[in-house]
Amino acid sequence: MNIILLAPPAAGKGTMSELISKKYDLEPLSTGDLLRAVLNKGDEESVRLKKIMDSGQLIDDDYILSLVKEKLGNNKGYIFDGFPRTINQADALDTLLTSINDKIDKVIYITVPKEVSLKRTIGRRVCPNCKKVYNIYFNKPKNEKICDECGSNLIKRNDDVEEVFNKRYDTYLKETMPLIEYYKNKGLLEEVENIDKEETFAQITKILEEI
Ligand code: AMP
Predict the structure, then answer these.
(1) CA separation (Å) from 17 to 71, 77, 90, 172?
(2) Which of 93, 107, 112, 70 is nearest to 188 (CA)?
(3) What is the domain partition of the chain in residue ranges?
(4) Whole-number pLDDT of residue 32
(5) Which of 6, 35, 51 to mutate for ligand 1's pocket (most ligand atoms within 8 Å of CB)?
(6) How far is the CA of 58 from the centre of ligand 1 (A)?
């Protein structure tokens, strides 16, 4: 089974991806996480990528597709988080999956009001060690600066500030929103409102049980 999560910035894709991947034994594939892993290398390429990501724009399709290609080919399926983000990426994913006799089974479109998306963005804190994600408004760690799970110092992503959020949101409207119509036309789109974690996951589970 292959599932795509489509949503505005900080709508809960990462959290849902983790829950779904565990319940259905799918491999989570987040292009944002793959890119952040490249940034850690600190080489010339990472400087180029960081500049684009910190400005709220998209990395070029060819680079993203090369990252995804390296990961594809397991036999249990994927939960795509933050990919595809453009029509070109969606077409390329289709071609890639067809070439390995596979396909997308569902696209879950998670909706959330823009103000909530903003608050989730500027309140997000991430553990660089165990990758646990917190939010100082919605899902606080016991100590605002320390990870409950492993005790590491939490960090705020460079792009989780209001100015970059606005740019990322505009990029989402322009580049990624057209995918809603694209997948609707293919009969794959299911819309889910992110009210709270449990309710959203329950709605998604219901959809996936029907595949
Ligand atoms: P995310 O962690 O999904 O919010 O992604 C963080 C940033 O990484 C985005 O704002 C983009 O700059 C870049 N990025 C992640 N996924 C993609 C993608 N599929 N296509 C282009 N850029 C991406």
Answers:
(1) 16, 13, 18, 19
(2) 107
(3) 3-112+176-208
(4) 96
(5) 35
(6) 6
CATH number of 3-112+176-208: 3.40.50.300
- Give the atom of ligand 1 at the shortest distance from the alpha carbon of 82: 3
- CA 35 to ligand 1: nearest atom: 8
- The residue whose C-alpha atom lies closest to atom 5 belonging to ligand 1 is 32
Confidence of residue 195 (pLDDT cuts 50, 70, 90): confident
Determine the distance separating the centroid of ligand 1 and the alpha carbon of 180, expressed in angstroms: 17
Please identify, by atom number, the ligand 1 atom nearest to the C-alpha of residue 52: 12
3-state secondary structure labels for all residues of 116-182: HHHHHHHCEEECCCCCCEEECCCECCCECCECCCCCCECECCCCCCHHHHHHHHHHHHHHHCHHHHH
pLDDT digits (tens, 9 = 90+) for 13-39: 999 999 999 999 999 999 999 999 999
The amino acid that residue 78 corresponds to is Y
The pLDDT value given to residue 145: 95
Task: Tell me the DSSP string of 13-74.
Answer: HHHHHHHHHHHHT-EEEEHHHHHHHHHTT-SHHHHHHHHHHHTT-PPPHHHHHHHHHHH---
Cβ atoms of residues 64 and 34 within 8 Å: no
User: Which residue bears the tokens 């823009």?
Assistant: 114
The tokens for 138 are 């919605």
Which residues, in sequence order, are bridge partners of residue 126? Answer: 133, 155
